[in-house]
Amino acid sequence: MDAFRIKGPCKLDGELEVPGAKNAALPLMAAALLTEEEVVLEDVPAYADVGNLIRLLRSLGAKVSHEDVDNPLGGTVRIQSDHAADPTAPYEIVKTMRASISVLGPLLAARGRASVSLPGGCAFGARPVDLHLHGLRSLDAKIELAGGQIEAAAPADGLKGRIIFMGGPNGPTVGGTQNVLCAAVLAKGRTIIESAACEPEVSDLVRLLRAMGAKITGEGSPRLVVDGVERLHGCTHRVMPDRIIAGTDAIAAAITCGRVELSNYPQDSLLGVEDVLQRIGVRFEFLDDGEDLLRRTVRITADRRQEAVEVTTQPWPGFPTDLQAQL
Length: 327
Fold this sequence. Notes:
Elements: E1 13-17, H1 22-31, E2 39-44, H2 48-59, E3 63-67, E4 75-80, E5 88-89, H3 91-94, H4 104-111, E6 113-117, H5 130-138, E7 142-146, E8 149-153, E9 163-165, H6 174-184, E10 190-194, H7 200-211, E11 215-217, E12 223-227, E13 235-238, H8 243-255, E14 259-265, H9 271-280, E15 282-286, E16 296-302
Helix pairs in contact: 1-2, 1-7, 4-6, 5-6, 6-7
């Protein structure tokens, strides 16, 4: 059995650079299916999910390479899709990660049809992808479920822009918003996505799509407005820093009363976390000019005596559930 042996106490003292975010990288990689030109993504971490999505993209006819995979901050992924390839995502790969559903919207928009296995196979009752399917049907897609497979087809004259309400019983869906967004960029006319997810990973997808030629406004708000275009082109995009890793590093510095300098720190994504840590007694000293709030350099320090706080986890921009255990 593997084990960690930890010797302490000691203060963390040093410099770290925040790597690219896996949860942002996966939908960005799927969005590369929207064009036949090469899309280059920088700071893509070499995690298992990234490797599985590369396998899935290759099975869909795309040429994919992952360079500099040993770089802890993330390597460079190059993707070039082929719209004439079979748009069937096999269950053998899809079952390895729920993020596989992110290819549904791009395939439907770019190739006119898609066949994607349900991430959990065939199941009865409400499914986590119901809002994805609702949004795509609102764009006039025909969708059928058969034997655990999602069969989606666009009308002969293409998807149509619509006003879509994407709220569900548990609030907005990040993956559903991203899937519908990718489909809407090539739909005819204007699409308004109401109750869209506001998370930074959605905004990062908007930045990529805009660099590819999409017309989108409203990122970071619950209303996204998309004016469809005829085609998209290739581009180079740097994946946003991982806000959960950055928050974990900041909390680790506080726990050990250390002195840690973080570069590539996504302050714009962590204001709720900073507020909680500052009330505890953690100090944030920013060392740059603040022009890019997504990639800052900060020195984090804390004294031995820290204050107790009451925290409720919330959707972004509140305190994230994924940092609750660390706190």
